[in-house]
Amino acid sequence: MNAFRKSLLGLSTALFLSPLAAMAQSGDAVTIVLPGGPDRLDPCETPRSVIGRIIKQNVVETLVELDYAKQTTIPRLAESWEQTSPTTWRFNLRKGVQFHDGTPFDAASVVYSLERTLDPKLTCITRTKYFGGVDITAKAIDENTVEFTTKTPMPILPTLLAQLAIASTKTPKGEYTAEPIGTGPYDFVSWTQGENVKIKRFDGYWGEKPKIVDATYVWRSESSVAAAMVETGEADLAFSIAPQDATNPETDKVYPNSDSAMFRLSADIAPLNDVRVREAFNLAIDRKAFLGSIISDKAELATQQVGPSVLGHNSKLVPWPYDPEQAKALLAEAKAAGIPVDTEIRMIGRPGMFANSNEFVEAAAEMLRAVGFKIKLDNLEMTQWLEAANKPFAAGRQANALLTMHDNNSGDAQFTAFFKYHSDGRQSEIHDAKVDKLITDAGMASGEERAKLYQETFRYIYEDLVADAPLFHMVNYMRVGKRLDFTPTIANAVELQLAKLVVKQPS
Amino acid sequence: MGNFIYKRSLQSLLSLALLIVLVFFLARLTGSPADLYLPLDATEEMRDQFNQRFGFDDPVYVQFFRFLGGLLQFDLGESIQYSKPAVEVVLQAFPTTLMLAAITMPIVIVVAIVTGSLAAFRPGGLFDRIASLISLIGASTPNFWVAIVGVIVFAVWLRVLPTSGTGTPWHWVLPIAVLCLRPTGVLVQVVRSSMITALSSAYVKTARAKGVRARAIVFVHALRNALLPVITVASDQAAGIVNGAVIVETVFGFPGIGKLMIDSVLLRDFAVIQAAVLVTALAVFIINIVVDITYALVDPRIRHS
């Protein structure tokens, strides 16, 4: 063999072997692909999926954990809790737990974490999204007992505390941290900006030791690349791959992502201020036609803004049928009654709200035009869309149908009902005394009573007011590599507990 | 020559200053970051706190003078996204893009000059036709599509290269190949047409008549004269690599400045947008100076004017 051929052979061997050797996965290590990278890894930001999916319940834990399947709460860092008065709750903490930095987990650290999260110097999402209107303080009763006091009764405090991650008292106050210190089964190792985050098993963990030792998180915004990484074995699991990339039923698993899409209708402005027109709007959209075409066939038709895993969801409501004839008849009736049904309605979409959302609004607009609506379609970029979505609404605006997608993964309807439907809600188009009272009463109630009141709220809004046009409860696709045995659930919208991953064939 | 460079630098600095002002104000016309960073149901109080923290509650001109003051001390403000100085965020991302460009451009220039010259030597010949066809395809195929197809073919089907990410030199092969494609395509065409003009000029005919060897005619006489437009286009392409890098970085998950810029614009992270534009503009500014010097070296007419 001459030298040239030898070097050619060497080169081709190198070409074929070395990249693959570099990608090999070992048995107790996993690589996980996220759609986007984190900007900070702060425990007070765990409700954001980009952060929660890495650190929540892996690096940092909460006192209480949500059980989405049963719509209930289960103990985590707290062993038990009781409501001692309408405004006070007492939590008994787990003993013998320590943070990764060696400091003990105790009542003081819980108080510290709450104070740090509520600090107005930071815009922690746990505060802005969940503790916004809640006037809450915590006090250490003894080393292992914490008492929470709220200004007004807070019957779902345990649900709320499922969002509060507990961090070591060595976490700086008043500034974000990029190195979370928690009590979880995994210890933070490193974060290389733009490249990866690494965590590894924490040997001093209080609970059962997970099987997986090392985890690396990488991110690819291009879904086909994320899917390819799992297919080639470079990664074990990819979140949120696009429906068109979910081509392998063996590895691609669907799970509800807690997002619900709807058209919010400006029920005060003609012609949408007439209930017949709003009914016609609902009847004119063939929702089922989208399933399996441009929306996943696993998505569900929605009747309200919260999914079935949320306390307060009303499962008795029936989705709107597709009935263009009835829609036309209703429009004609409204027209005869003097409603200006020919007035233009502005349909507002946002590119990338969900996969194929542009195609969706185009098709929906056509369906509405087919029964006689006059629709002008505007696809707005995020900030402009927010201006249209949020109060204060522009003076003199025209009637609009705003496409929104709302996620509620907190387990309770409170985080939807007020903001979307109360007169004072930032995105509410309605101001109905009955709705306001229902929402206020539900917020004070607990258990069965609470669920019933929210269910009635959603029924009233859907059946009597016809305030909007609910569309779909959305799903995500996760590609799970062949090494892993894992079925995603709605919890994976905001977290992925590595302890729940099972490696099938350790190599 | 010194005077020439000095004048050109002054002009570039002026445009740089204008650019900074434009970016500052244009970015702020696109809406408030508070809407994006706070949840939809955030209270007015929270929004005020947010705006206060980042100084967005001051009038825009106050913000501008604060920005200018910071600029003099190399302080470009704090990134909202990363809660870190914007300069730090940008300088962390810049080397990756610089590296991509530094590997890509020499490949592009060498391949384009050799291919373009050879094609020009016998216009209409077989090599010319093939080279023209391939370069045309290269220049007109969208990077994004090529990148995805590249991943599917080389990583998924053939399994010879990793899909994406960084780590080994192998991770750089696909991104650089994709990044080379368009500038090479464009440059081959420029070299070819410029060489054809040069080869049909009077001085080449004279050289031929004097019996100068073909290789010397092409690479000494013709190429040197044909090089000016090539340098111009090559410098444009080099600056354009930042654009190409956005796509390549997004698809392959490279932590470069292109992706950072897009993300920052989408998230209204003004400080990072400004820092990224400034650093990129400085790089383009340096490229321009280098190009000007190259011009002067190649063409004595510029040197002496």
Write structural notes for this entry.
The complex is a heterodimer of chains A (507) and B (305). Chain A has 507 residues and is α+β, with helices and mostly antiparallel strands. Chain A has 14 helices and 21 strands. In chain A, the strands form five sheets. In chain A, strands 1, 10, 11, 12, 13, 14, 15, 16, 17, 18 and 19 form an eleven-stranded mixed β-sheet that branches. A four-stranded antiparallel β-sheet of chain A has the order 5-6-8-7, covered by helices on one side. In chain A, strands 2-9 form a two-stranded antiparallel sheet. In chain A, α10 (357-370) links the parallel β16 (344-349) and β17. The longest helix of chain A has 21 residues, at 3-23. Chain A is globular and about 75 Å long. In chain B, α7 crosses α10 (214-252). At the A-B interface, α1, α4, α6 and α11 of A face α2, α3, α5, α7 and α10 of B.
What's the structural blueprint in terms of helices and strands?
The complex is a heterodimer of chains A (507) and B (305).
Chain A lengths: L2 H21 L5 E6 L14 H7 L5 E2 L1 E4 L4 E4 L2 E8 L2 E6 L13 H12 L6 H6 L5 E7 L2 E6 L6 H5 L3 E2 L19 E7 L3 E6 L12 E6 L3 H9 L5 E5 L10 E14 L9 H10 L2 H4 L9 E2 L22 H13 L7 E6 L7 H14 L3 E6 L2 H8 L10 E8 L6 H8 L11 H12 L2 H19 L2 E13 L3 E2 L16 E2 L4
Parallel strand pairs in A: 1-12, 1-13, 16-17, 16-18
Antiparallel strand pairs in A: 2-9, 3-4, 5-6, 6-8, 7-8, 10-11, 11-12, 13-19, 14-18, 14-19, 15-19, 20-21
Helix pairs in contact in A: 7-9, 12-13, 13-14
Chain B lengths: L1 H28 L3 H5 L6 H10 L6 H13 L13 H36 L4 H15 L2 H15 L12 H30 L2 H9 L3 H39 L4 H10 L3 H29 L1 H5 L1
Helix pairs in contact in B: 1-12, 5-6, 5-8, 5-10, 5-12, 6-8, 7-8, 7-10, 8-10, 9-10, 10-11, 10-12, 11-12
How would you summarize this macromolecular structure in one to three sentences?
With 507 residues, chain A is of the alpha+beta class. Chain A has helices spanning 3-23, 49-55, 107-118, 125-130, 157-161, 223-231, 275-284, 287-290, 324-336, 357-370, 382-389, 414-421, 433-444, 447-465, and strands spanning 29-34, 61-62, 64-67, 72-75, 78-85, 88-93, 136-142, 145-150, 165-166, 186-192, 196-201, 214-219, 237-241, 252-265, 300-301, 344-349, 374-379, 400-407, 468-480, 484-485, 502-503. With 305 residues, chain B is mainly alpha-helical.
